[in-house]
Amino acid sequence: MNIVLSPEASTVLPGVDRQQLAADFEALAAITEPHKPWTRRSFSPLFLEGREFLKARFAEEGLTVRLDTAGNLIGRLEGANPAAPVIMTGSHSDTVPGGGRFDGIAGILCGLAAIRALKAAGHGLHHPLELVDFLAEEPSEWGLSCIGSRGMAGALGDGELALAGPGGETLAHAITRIGGDSAQIAAARRSDVAAFVELHIEQGPVLEARGVPVGIVSGIAGICRLKVRFEGVPAHAGTAPMDMRADASLAAARFALGLRNATRDQQATGLFTATAGVWQIEPGGANVVPGAAEITVDIRAESDAAMTAYLTQLAVLAQSAADAESCRLTRLQQLSRTRATPCDPALQAVIAEAARALGHASLPLASGAGHDAAFLARITRSAMIFAPSHEGRSHCPEEWTEPEDLARAADVLALTLMQLDRQRHDAGRG
Amino acid sequence: MNIVLSPEASTVLPGVDRQQLAADFEALAAITEPHKPWTRRSFSPLFLEGREFLKARFAEEGLTVRLDTAGNLIGRLEGANPAAPVIMTGSHSDTVPGGGRFDGIAGILCGLAAIRALKAAGHGLHHPLELVDFLAEEPSEWGLSCIGSRGMAGALGDGELALAGPGGETLAHAITRIGGDSAQIAAARRSDVAAFVELHIEQGPVLEARGVPVGIVSGIAGICRLKVRFEGVPAHAGTAPMDMRADASLAAARFALGLRNATRDQQATGLFTATAGVWQIEPGGANVVPGAAEITVDIRAESDAAMTAYLTQLAVLAQSAADAESCRLTRLQQLSRTRATPCDPALQAVIAEAARALGHASLPLASGAGHDAAFLARITRSAMIFAPSHEGRSHCPEEWTEPEDLARAADVLALTLMQLDRQRHDAGRG
Q: Is residue B213 located within the same domain as residue B229?
């Protein structure tokens, strides 16, 4: 299959090699804990086995392979001007426990397929092109995610490096153990990147539901986590009259429903979700009126202003839920909050044009999940391409993206990288 | 203190010995697991230590002490006519883990105080009087409650006796171990009881809230337990749009609120409670939309008809909660149901008259908790006297009843037993 570019580009680029791409997915996904597919936890022997596979494949496609001091695996294809800033793509090869076959590796293997296609087109690139397997994007045993991209963005400080993981091993030690050099962590920080484009599965149902094969990420949502605790009075289920109770589970129930209902007002601000995923109802006896209820709330917003407005509303909702059930709101604690990261508008336009040139419908949509691209945005222009996820399932064995959807997304990535190379770039923002 | 009876009774009965009663409470409550007050679990060495104390006290007050084959400790005071049917009182000396100082022993120690007062009055009784410490009224390690009163009612069958407890010991073995004789369990069944009156703490807040010292139990509620399970679709908290979710926790929240609201229609039928005490929200990750929610519901009703009507309504509520949240109702299972037990109206009248004669306000109220009196109702006329519980707390170390409230209830019990003795009874119903 050849890709006929738009008249402006007046170029023919061969589509990615479907067969090789499918073989790569099969080979890398097969490196999994046998009794818990699909699991390849960061820092584990299986993770290192996966990286050996990637190193070999990178080398076969002509990339120069190295690990940076933050433990990122980097394959580099030199361009005509080695001093030109780098065009970068990639994602991660680690998984959650019992995860899927696509989350993470799609961005590496489609990146590899895109580079193969670019080389096959034979134009020669001006800029160096780098393909990165970022270390430990998923929440790791050290309680931290996006470890490698944090390192590349200069956001891996002494506090993070001192975190203790299994057996008391520090993160610093673990990074060095897998081939990084945590004593020289600052050397991982990059200021020579012109642009970063990450391909990833959507992990949500929107593209499939709308029948659109290509998602162009408008931004990565900010995330706020809170703990909300209601306290009432534990009592005997048979002897406490209904009108004399303070049942904390009912305050939590009111709050959770109110929380969801209040998100309706925020949908116009872009991606906005609120989830009560963890419920602890105490003491949890069949014959005891619950005396306490604690809920963990996860809120994600494309708009920081919308998040802030909603948090104010949430405090009112929680208090009124407590009051309505004669309970007390004893905790309303923000555990963490990250700001939203808009994707670079110019990069989004290049991706959209590439999709159009290839004849694929595309859709701008925000990412509710965090990604390495959010940390890369701190040092360069950053954007993402999404491929559809069947029924939106992800982080589970049922995670599925059609091979042809992956190939299409890889085609769009290839053309995007080529068009970025044709633009002449100065050094990145870092 | 002397009690001047109503003109009809034309008798003076000394009030119970306050000092001795308080000393008995102090001594028996002190037999507790030292690091987990107040705990005296049935079948345990501490439980047997408590019984040794009771045997000694029973004997000191002139009672003949024996254990029946179901493991009930029985103290008997002969009347003028040993062949007359028995007037019985009592309760239980076992506790829940980390329970209170009154639940159970109040009925035994106030019974003992009442007998002492009756003897002090020097009238001589016509009927034999028995004071019983029923075996294992609280849920035991064998998963069964009211073991002794079941045995006395002929309701301890092979199925129950075969239940396995700690270390695999059968209930049959355990009953024999503590002095019963499970091979002769049928011998525990009684048909010679004219009336049973149990004194117990209320375990609820009604008497205290109304400022009334004596509760006359109108009936013991029927109890129904159900498991209700909602299933939705687990999804990523950031990537699943709000309008494409099936969040099982929200179906559970709607159901729990609906369940409570629907009890309002039942309050006119007498005691009616519904409690969702156990909530299991799955998978329970902060970043995962809950895919399943399972709730255990406890319903108690004085009226069996009201319970039946409510169960029908509950099924509709559960289905509509599931529908409203795009979830499925995958389980609506009745785990158990016991019928309500009305207390004997004539016995209630005797108690009310005794309270009136003693100048104590009384209040009819139903018991939402189960009691040995419910099993005794299968073989004889059965009724209960409640003493106020501070703030309705029970089954916890904060459980409290004022000493004078216990003494007043014991006075009412003493006069009730005396009046019952003056009525001439034929054998019980059994």
A: no
